[in-house]
From TrEMBL:
Gene source species: Prunus dulcis (Almond)
GO molecular function, one term: mRNA binding
Keywords associated with the record: Repeat
Protein's recorded name: PREDICTED: pentatricopeptide repeat-containing
Domain of life: Eukaryota
Similarity-based family: Belongs to the PPR family. P subfamily.
SUPFAM superfamilies in the cross-refs: TPR-like (SSF48452)
Residue spans of the PPR repeats: 121-155, 191-225, 227-261, 332-366
Alphabetical list of NCBIfam families matching this protein: PPR
């Protein structure tokens, strides 16, 4: 593939029809947007001799990142290096971010260290800071921010926004007003994100009047145009505070700001009207969305069905699901899961199982979430062996992002307590074999429960101490006493 630098910015819409059909991102997404299909298409493109311009690679990277397809994005970015395509400082910042998302923070740090000094601008520093913030690495983030200030880098609102978002996520909203004041003192212009994070920080300490003062300041400032996201944020704050009347007035403002018919804005409207309990407005906005987007996306149906389920409008959810089912080009198990979950919650197990099989026939295999739904149902009804089967199925499938799926500590505790009460050593050991496939360490609580199960059943095992040693676990005094009887040579 001949990767060439192309000086001028190009718009794909202005290219000939023949060339657009061969555009890089269209090639990658021609078999759908799943991670597997995109990776396969990327491999085919890389094997070919297709001519691709630098701007086109950049445009494709942007689309891949928007869809959270980080692995193929990193591979494409690496090809830029190997085949001689010159990277700008922005390209390098994007590459650093992709390394952090697909590998880990140390790998991203090494990439940053190896960059030439001329490339260590506010772009690369800001990308690394953002990585620290997303991983909630407060000390590293604060230290890097201080270094950026010491180097007199040209700071925009972005690094400040990253740091404020970090404080929000780590439960320190009280630190945010001081950062806002620092930005103002340093003549760093606040953007809509800055205002939104500030509003959230005040809402976190129940200062709703403070939130309203921020909105008023934003309007008076005039430099930052309040878009629909600002009103979505404010409406969400009102909803969480139980101030539904103010929330609905704000949602009216949100609709007025959505002149460009942003799909995400419609979805927020539906979700937030749903949280106010206003079913009539939910349906009204849904009709508007359908008119604006006749080819309605799976994600929009998923959102609408979930809202209807939350509002206990199961007939409406079923009708919406049937409509989606008759029109969808790709049968998305996530949409089916919403209705499967609703059926399970209502105790309609047969309907839930029937829908799961129906989805399978349409090419949508159950994912980990599907099995989580049945797992919760079987735990609720006390059908523990079926619950263990669900854990096994979810573990073998894994998460959608390719990571391991593992049951929560609460679920593990519930199942181990069941085996302990039933004196079921074989059941407990079988469950642990499944669990070991998804966790690095079983933990001391699990082993203490296992020891009690052996003791209750009057069973012995000479290897228990060795197992504890391999896991590097130290059990409590009560378990040590039981070990005397359980761990017999």
């Amino acid at each position: 593939m001949a990767l060439q630098q192309f000086g001028r910015t190009k718009s794909v819409t202005k290219r000939s029809t023949k060339y657009v059909e061969q555009a890089l991102y269209l090639r990658l997404f021609k078999d759908g947007g799943s991670d597997v299909s995109v990776r396969q298409q990327l491999n085919e493109v890389l094997k070919s001799r297709k001519r691709v311009y630098k701007w086109e690679v950049g445009d494709t990277l942007k689309k891949l990142r928007e869809r959270k397809l980080y692995y193929p994005a990193l591979k494409l970015s690496e090809v830029m290096d190997r085949r001689g395509m010159n990277k700008t400082v922005s390209d390098q910042a994007i590459h650093l971010d992709l390394i952090a998302k697909t590998r880990d923070i140390p790998a991203a740090e090494n990439y940053f260290i190896d960059l030439p000094e001329t490339a260590k601008t506010h772009h690369s520093y800001g990308a690394l800071l953002n990585c620290y913030c997303k991983e909630l690495m407060t000390e590293k983030a604060e230290a890097l921010m201080e270094k950026m200030k010491a180097l007199n880098l040209s700071l925009t609102s972005m690094p400040y926004n990253s740091l404020m978002t970090l404080y929000s996520k780590t439960g320190h909203p009280e630190k945010i007003p001081a950062i806002i004041q620092e930005m103002k003192a340093g003549s760093v212009m606040l953007d809509s994100c800055s205002y939104n994070v500030w509003m959230r920080a005040l809402a976190a300490v129940n200062d709703i009047s403070g939130v309203e003062r921020v909105i008023d300041e934003m309007k008076r400032d005039g430099r930052v145009s309040s878009d629909w996201t600002t009103y979505s944020n404010l409406a969400s704050i009102y909803v969480e505070a139980g101030m539904f009347e103010k929330a609905e007035k704000t949602l009216n403002e949100l609709e007025k700001k959505n002149a460009r018919r942003d799909l995400l804005a419609y979805q927020f409207l539906i979700t937030l009207y749903g949280k106010t309990g206003n079913l009539r407005e939910v349906y009204r906005v849904w009709r508007s969305l359908r008119l604006a987007f006749p080819k309605t996306a799976n994600i929009s149906y998923l959102n609408m069905i979930q809202v209807l389920v939350n509002l206990n409008d199961l007939p409406g959810a079923e009708k919406c699901f049937r409509e989606w089912e008759s029109r969808c080009s790709t049968y998305d198990i996530r949409v089916a899961n919403v209705l499967i979950g609703a059926y399970a919650k209502e105790g309609m197990l047969e309907k839930a199982k029937e829908l799961k099989e129906q989805a399978r026939r349409r090419g949508a295999k159950p994912n980990a979430k599907t099995w989580e739904i049945f797992l919760d149902y079987y735990l609720e009804t006390g059908e523990y062996q079926l619950a263990v089967d669900c854990v096994a199925n979810a573990t073998s499938i894994g998460r959608g992002d390719g990571g391991k799926w593992s049951p929560s500590r609460k679920i593990v505790k519930t199942l181990m307590e069941h085996f302990e009460q039933e004196k079921d050593v074989d059941g407990a050991e079988g469950f642990l074999e499944i669990l070991k496939k998804s966790v690095d360490s079983l933990g001391v609580e699990v082993f203490e429960s296992l020891i009690r199960t052996y003791a209750a059943a009057g069973r012995t095992t000479p290897s228990m101490r060795a197992r504890l040693k391999m896991e590097k676990l130290e059990v409590g005094e009560a378990s040590k006493k039981l070990l005397e009887a359980v761990c017999v040579e």
